[in-house]
Specification:
single chain; 3 helices; alpha+beta
Length: about 130
C-alpha cells in the first residue's frame, strides 16, 4: 500500500511540475516592461541586443547600405528620453512578436526605425534602419 501511495505521489508531483513548466514557457514578456528596463539598465540593454547587430544606414551619397555592428562598437541607446520630445516624434507599434519604434525629427532629418522581436518569450533589439539625412 505504501509503495502504491508513493508511486502515485511521485506521478502527481511530476505531472504538476510539467504543467507548471508549460505555463511559465507560454507567458511572453510584456513589451512595455521590457522597454522601460531596456532604457534604464545598460547591462540589460546589451544582453537584449542580437549581436552582431545588422542594420541599415545611409552613406554619404544617401544610399541605404547594410552594416554590421559588434558588441564592442555598440553605444547604449536612450529611446525614451523625454528631453528628446522637443525635436523628436516617437511612434511605437507593437504586434504579437514584433515591435517597431519610429523616430522622426521635427524640423530635422532624423528618420530611424528600431525593430524589436520576441524570441523565446523575451524581447530583443533585432535591427534598426537609419534613413536620416
Amino acid at each position: 500500500m505504501k509503495k502504491y501511495f508513493f508511486i502515485m505521489f511521485v506521478f502527481a508531483m511530476s505531472l504538476n511540475s510539467t504543467i507548471y513548466a508549460q505555463d511559465t514557457k507560454t507567458v511572453a514578456e510584456d513589451f512595455n516592461v521590457f522597454f522601460k528596463k531596456f532604457n534604464e539598465d545598460q547591462k540589460f540593454q546589451i544582453s537584449r541586443v542580437i549581436f552582431p547587430l545588422k542594420y541599415k544606414a545611409n552613406n554619404e551619397d544617401f544610399e541605404l547600405l547594410d552594416y554590421t555592428m559588434t558588441k564592442e562598437k555598440y553605444k547604449v541607446l536612450r529611446l525614451n528620453n523625454k528631453a528628446d520630445e522637443k525635436y523628436l516624434k516617437r511612434t511605437l507599434s507593437v504586434k504579437k512578436s514584433k515591435a517597431t519604434l519610429e523616430e522622426r525629427g521635427l524640423d530635422s532629418g532624423i528618420y530611424i526605425d528600431y525593430v524589436f522581436e520576441l524570441k523565446d518569450n523575451k524581447w530583443f533589439l533585432k535591427t534598426f534602419v537609419d534613413q536620416s539625412t
